[in-house]
Design goal:
The complex is a heterodimer of chains A (about 260) and B (about 350). Chain A is an alpha/beta fold. Chain A is built from ten helices and ten strands. Chain B is mainly alpha-helical. Chain B is about 65% helix and about 0% strand. The longest helix of chain B has 27 residues. Classes of the chains: A alpha/beta (about 260), B mainly alpha (about 350).
């Protein structure tokens, strides 16, 4: 059984068809790339998986359990972490707090414990803090723990988003253009990081990317979409030479 | 050893304030001002939870105060027999000086008063749902309008209920609010809200302020967090209302008009957003200022408003916005983290 199964997913924004008959079978441990030109509906698919919108039609299941109609926090706490194309950090909170907040679903104490600062409270809070530090260390942002997220350099903000997503302890990681706005050197670093993190946390990753170099470099299989529809699926080589993908990116050939 | 400094300091302060009040070192006027400071601190810190930490703009705090005040007052004036309270009914307008004899006569008061206040608090917390539930869908300016509406709804409901005195209100409230009681409740409020806000629950509330959708994606149950924030906030507004009622000895719906809400807002912004220390300082500064400027009579409001304008122009974060006294701040991370300036 695949970890994530999406069947005949269709979504309309008013009269606009954003996603049409989309399907995906994502096996455990896979790193799948999702490519397509601007406005093809890639981020919408992420948002549908995470429950921001309720799909007009279709089925999404994680581990065989349907996710349709659940509130986003219920979906993500089942083990889906994500990052955003345009960073969405909690800017005026510290780096440490950013990573702690993603463990909200793991608060195993009641309100009274919080008010009275019971033993149980300290135990759980310590656990949360330790996990946060471990993740910050892995991503090399530990030295910023007490800094506000907004004051971090751009590349480290991307790392923080990754740390925050990992704090959910996800089975499935959704990365939305993780190398957007990075220079080539940073890009290579990020690609390394994605692979390292995948190994270390035994993740399944669905990756949206614009830069062919990134997807071609690290993804085993790639799915290409345009106007919300799957137009091609296969290995990087197959995608590279696929006529419909080239057309979607470069436009159709016109006969002279 | 260090961890005992704060409790010892508080006990010391409690003894000094209580002793000075009982032995008459503090005049009635000083005592009243002290009680106002405490009550205002409770109101300010509870409103700060919503307006500062959660980033919503509530302008109807007085509505929740009213619920707490009315529940507590009904209980002490109509439900609980007078002999339990040990104080005779006091005609409205009569300034009741602190009476040690009366205090000693009714030890039951010590048990009854907190219970009465708690009931008022719980009632107010329930009323908090009136704002919490709409807040699931509505944010910002529109939610502010809803808080305003709730303030008016509560006020009008009391105005139109003859059984609760209508617009004439409820006179003859026994004087149960005293310096020691206000002190205890002020500490409880500051401490409870501080503990809540620095727990991971509280961080969820701050995440809503920063980015609600991202918070939801990061597994924060934003609906629950909103209910918690609004209900805790209105709970303490209710406690503050109950204390105020038993200090004023007479309440009517006009006591809890939008003007009262505004006053609390001013203290929040004066003291500073998202700060427990700021809430306390804001309450002290505002109450002190408004007493100090009393000789100016109505001109006082011109001066206070002017100060507020200057504050917004030159120090928008208030006295202590987003900052905290060392003794109130959460425990620093256990590990020593080397500070590294952001390299770019």
């Amino acid at each position: 059984m695949p970890l994530l199964r999406i069947n005949s997913l269709t979504h309309y924004f008013g009269g606009l068809r954003a996603v049409y008959d989309y399907h995906l079978d994502l096996g455990e441990g896979e790193l799948r790339g999702l490519i397509g030109p601007n406005g093809a509906g890639k981020t919408t698919i992420f948002n549908l998986i995470c429950g921001l919108y309720r799909p007009t039609e279709g089925e999404i299941a994680l581990d065989g359990k349907s996710l349709i109609g659940l509130q986003p926090h219920k979906i993500t706490s089942q083990g889906i972490g994500r990052t955003f194309q345009n960073l969405r950090l909690f800017n005026d909170l510290t780096v440490l707090d950013n990573v702690k907040i993603a463990q909200y679903s793991r608060i195993r104490y009641g309100l009274t414990d919080a008010f009275l600062r019971t033993r149980r409270y300290w135990e759980v809070e310590e656990e949360i803090e330790e996990r946060a530090y471990r993740l910050m260390e892995i991503l090399g942002i530990e030295r910023y723990a007490d800094q506000l997220a907004r004051n971090l350099p751009y590349g480290d903000q991307r790392r923080l988003e990754m740390a925050r997503a990992l704090a959910i302890e996800p089975k499935l990681l959704l990365l939305d253009e993780p190398t957007a706005g990075m220079n080539p050197a940073e890009m290579v670093e990020m690609m390394d990081l994605i692979q390292r993190v995948k190994e270390e946390f035994k993740l399944t990753i669905l990756l949206i990317e614009h830069r062919m170099k990134v997807v071609m470099g690290i993804c085993e299989r790639i799915q290409a979409i345009d106007f919300g529809e799957v137009i091609a699926e296969g290995t990087p080589e197959e995608i590279r030479s696929n006529r419909r993908v080239i057309e979607a990116y470069l436009g159709e050939e016109v006969e002279a | 050893m260090k961890k005992y400094y704060l409790p010892l300091g508080l006990i010391g302060l409690f003894i000094v304030l209580t002793g000075a009040s009982w032995l008459g070192f503090f005049s009635d006027y000083i005592q009243t001002v002290l009680m106002y400071i405490g009550i205002n601190a409770i109101l300010t810190v509870s409103l700060n939870l919503v307006n500062g930490y959660m980033g919503e703009f509530s302008v109807g705090h007085a509505g929740f105060m009213a619920v707490g005040a009315y529940i507590a007052t009904i209980l002490t004036t109509r439900v609980i027999p007078h002999f339990v309270l040990g104080t005779p009914l006091v005609p409205s307008g009569f300034v009741y000086t602190f009476d040690v004899a009366a205090w000693a006569k009714g030890p039951a008061v010590h048990l009854v008063f907190p219970v009465v206040l708690l009931m008022g608090g719980f009632g107010a917390a329930l009323a908090g749902l009136l704002v919490a539930v709409p807040s699931f869908k509505i944010r910002g300016d529109y939610l502010a309008i809803i808080t305003l509406a709730v303030n008016y709804i509560v006020k009008s409901a009391f105005e139109n209920t003859e059984a609760l005195g209508g617009s004439r209100g409820l006179p003859g409230i026994p004087k149960l609010t005293s310096v020691p009681w206000v002190f205890v409740w002020t500490i409880i409020s500051l401490w409870a809200i501080r503990n809540f806000i620095y727990s991971t629950y509280g961080k969820g509330v701050m995440a809503i302020r920063e980015d609600e959708i991202a918070a939801e994606f990061m597994t924060v149950d934003t609906r629950r967090a909103k209910i918690l924030a609004f209900c805790i906030s209105s709970f303490f507004a209710g406690i503050g209302g109950g204390l105020l009622a038993h200090l004023l000895l007479y309440i009517n719906p006009a006591t809890f008009s939008i003007t009262k809400s505004t006053e609390v807002l001013v203290m929040v912004y004066l003291g500073g957003m998202s700060s427990v220390s700021g809430s306390l300082l804001g309450a002290i500064a505002y109450t002190g200022l408004s007493e100090a400027l009393r000789p100016l009579r109505l001109w006082k409001w011109v001066v206070i408003s002017l100060i507020l304008i200057l504050l917004m122009l030159f120090r928008r974060e208030g006295i202590m916005g987003f900052k905290e006294f060392r003794f109130l701040a959460p425990k620093a991370p256990k590990r020593e983290v080397e500070y590294a300036p952001a390299s770019d």
